[in-house]
Amino acid sequence: MRITIEEDKCCGAGQCVLLAPKVFDQRDEDGVVILLDAEPPAEEHGNAREAATVCPAAAIEIHA
Q1: How far is CA 64 from the centre of its chain?
Q2: CATH number, residue 50
Q3: CB within 10 Å: which end of the chain, N or C, has fewer?
């Protein structure tokens, strides 16, 4: 799995951080997503997929 993000789409909702804190974080100044691990281990795949699904701005893309 590989993850990409589109920072310009991010609205700073923070759902990704709540669901997958080992994969995502947020910038302090504006809440925009930070990708901590573009190729997370298998045990984080479910969390990352759920984060992408619930992202209100569709800023997270999962590549198989």
Answers
A1: 15
A2: 3.30.70.20
A3: C
Per-residue pLDDT of 12-24, as tens digits, reads 999 999 999 999 9
CA distance 8 to 16: 16
Strand partners, 58: none
Distance CA(62)–CA(54), nearest Å, equals: 13
Distance between CA atoms of residues 13 and 40, nearest Å: 21
Residue 17 CA to residue 36 CA, distance in Å, equals 10
Helix H or strand E encompassing 33:
strand 33-35
Count of structural domains, the chain: 1
Per-residue model confidence (pLDDT) at position 64: 87
